[in-house]
Amino acid sequence: MNEKGLTSEEVKRLIESGKANDLVKETDKSIKKIFISNIFTYFNAIFCLLSVLLIIARAYKNLTFLVVIVINLAIGIISTNSI
């Protein structure tokens, strides 16, 4: 099987007829909405409750899971913003 791509002439003709693929890199969310949708989630509410309970119990060493939560939150915001 001999496979080849489009010739320059074919590409030009397709672009002129409006059959080209355009990459649209826009998001319909503002940065504020991205932060809010990533911060106020069901799981973050659970982790916030657990954190408050651990602080009340003075079990500060058990709060180390918050580092993972903050990193996960940052990844979610960055990946949503870069789409």
Quick summary:
This protein has 83 residues and is an all-alpha fold. Helices cover 60% and strands 0% of the residues.
Can you walk through the features of this model?
With 83 residues, the protein is an all-alpha fold. It has a domain of 55 residues. Helices cover 60% and strands 0% of the residues. The chain contains 4 helices and no strands. Helix 2 packs antiparallel against helix 4. The longest helix has 17 residues. It is rod-shaped, with a radius of gyration of 24 Å. The two termini are 37 Å apart. The model has no long low-confidence stretch (mean pLDDT 86).
Q: Give the helix level as a range of percent.
A: 55-70%
Name the poorly predicted regions.
Answer: none
Mean pLDDT: 86
- Shape, per Cα inertia axes: rod-shaped
Distance between the termini: 37 Å
The ordered H/E elements are HHHH
- Radius of gyration equals 24 Å
Give a count of the beta strands, DSSP E runs of length 2 or more.
0
Number of helices: 4
Percent of residues in beta strands?
A: under 5%
Structural class: mainly alpha
* Largest sheet geometry: none
